[in-house]
Amino acid sequence: MLADAADIQKRDAVVEIGPGEGALTKVLLERGAHVVAVEKDTRLIPLLSEKFAQEIKNEQLEVIEEDALRLNTASHLKKHAGKSSKKDTYKVVGNIPYYITGALLRKYLTDTKQPATLVFLIQKEVAERIARSTKESLLSLSIKAYGTPTYIKTVPRGAFNPPPAVDSAILLVSNISRKNFKNKKHEERFFTLLHAGFAQKRKLLKRNIEKVLGSDTEKVLQDAGIPLNARAEDVSLAQWLALTLN
Length: 246
Known about the structure:
Blueprint: H1 2-5, E1 13-17, H2 23-30, E2 34-39, H3 44-51, H4 53-57, E3 61-65, H5 73-77, E4 91-95, H6 101-109, E5 117-123, H7 124-131, H8 138-144, E6 148-155, E7 168-174, H9 184-197, H10 205-213, H11 217-223, H12 237-245
Parallel strand pairs: 1-2, 1-4, 2-3, 4-5
Antiparallel strand pairs: 5-7, 6-7
Helix pairs in contact: 9-10, 9-12, 10-11
């Protein structure tokens, strides 16, 4: 399912987060992708190395024992650049630990070398908040600033053995880029205002961002087309981006 959502094609460069015993890895390799599999659990490295010995020998697969949050993605992808059909792009897929969902999304979406596509199996509630909610959140806007999130499919807890306590969902983030930002300074200003805006959710946006914008707050909001009585969750990405340009 994850491979379908990511539209894995022959000779795609793929970073797989948390391959476990290699079920998804096998599918990725069968589709002809060149895979960098990042596994933190030391006990699984020998299993993966034995199971995919031929693919490792053929340099179609690299198994790395590392925390995905610390991985220097660009350096490992260089080894596969000559084999990938799209030398400057890669995809990220993974059935990830729920507790680092936000950290992993932030790492790859803000990385110097961004992926073109990202597909994670995450907690259903979080996927809905990102891609389906009528109210925005700090998380949803942080993702939409870089790409297009799509709720692909619900995966019920009963699909796993042992079953987790909650249902899961496949989240796709496509068209990843920094096209919404003029430069690094603009990107930093966007997140400064975004964090300030959501600092106290019960307060009006105007009150939350006054500490950043000072006496110009009302004018900046009006210029961005944002009502003075708006709350952060009611402001669209386009309006947030307009706000940062003033």
